[in-house]
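Table S2 (text version). Query chain:
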Amino acid sequence: MEHRLTRIPFFVLLMAIGSAAMMLPAIHALVREEWLTSRTFLYGSILGLMLSLLIGLATANYRPASVPRSQLSALVAAFTVLPVMFAIPFHEALGTTSFLNAWFEMVSSFTTTGATVYDNVVRLNDSLHLWRATVGWLGGLLIWVTAVSILAPMNLGGFEVRSPSIIGEGGARLSQITRIADPSERLVRYATRLLPIYAGLTGLLWLGLVAAGDRPFVAFCHAMSTLATSGISPVGGLRYANSGLLGEMLIVLFSVFALSRLTFARNLFGDQGGRLMRDPELRMGLALVLIVPGLLFMRHFFGAVEDRVEADLPQAFSALWGALFTVSSFLTTTGFESRYWLGAADWSGLETPGLILVGLALIGGGVATTAGGVKLLRVYALWMHGKRELERLVHPHSVGGDGVEARRIRREGAFISWIFFMLFALSVTAVMLALSLTGVQFEVAMTLTVAALSTTGPLAEIGAQYPISYAGIPDMAKTILAAAMVLGRLETLAIIALLNPSSWRS
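Corresponding structure-token output:
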């Protein structure tokens, strides 16, 4: 069975998996006696599986001339073409929306962005909310699998920071590997190893949220959205959930899997022997989660000296927890807002505390996780390089220690990270300019651009001074944001590697 799967192109496998996943909302709608929704997803699943079967039979013996370019092209097609297939039953079942909005919703879900044009959650029934969460969950699983099977061998997706080879050599190294192990075999092998972990963690969080008081359906959607960092909620956010403080604590606990890949797959990325608490990404992520809420909390006391503001102990605890949860959620690009965040914002006394969340979303989570953003490892490389430069100002003839890998991160890793920062900044500029040409205001364009490129859709609601609705922007702006979501999910370096003429050679 595994050998037969390896003969099918990667994109066709993704089509079949997405089509089979349509049975979940079909069965859910059938149980709830929502016949139109059930039939729509059932027919969509059958047609999708038949189309996948026909294409699979026609391309079973196809062997690409350039394996790296084929794998990257399949990833681009997955985030651009598959949402069209996902949007067809969604559009037909809802019936009161345009296909562009349905496609935008599926692109947002599959890239784990979580931006929605349906501000009123009552407009969608539970089966459609389940489909949104399922598509986001599948997108997170795709990131896990492709990170270890495609991006890691090609020195992309953040792996270029630690790799001794330059980015251009990744494709050649992958081509040498494929003479022994086919890339399809790597995809299937790593998928079978990561899927039980991914599903098991989702199931554990689901059971925990149900025990905390959530309805099983709401708990299931929130559990999938937490592991996928999509921030999709069928009730409009955690403030409307019944799990309360205990549910938020469970979500924070499981958000650690978006800070470092060592939390779920230590031996798959060449990190043998690495200790979890010595991982730079996890340490930097935990430092930000503790320092930023601490500064917001202490800001109140500095303001109280002038304003003579008094507060009781429960209010202080609520403000501290609201800041800690929201900061960790936006750092991992999930985008869940704590029910105590408004109290934390009032406690800090800042006029626009959402700008702090914009900066955290730009930083993002760990490499090879479902989180988006620039990634913690790149920020760590620039931090270490700056620290080393300051040390050389004091002691010009000093020798940097910490081993070969640390020196590589401070030198080549920092150089590549700086290049990525420049490309990311240019991407922000280009998307903002394109949104401005469609009539979007500057502040709104800035917030929407960061939300799309960092795959943190809920940032539009609390990142600006006033909430921004995706439903109120022009259709052309939605198309631009959808393209920005795909670019933010795949990263600029992967797109450049795909367009590199050297990868076209057979």
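Notes on Table S2: The two ends are 29 Å apart (CA to CA). Confidence is low (pLDDT under 50) at residues 168-181.
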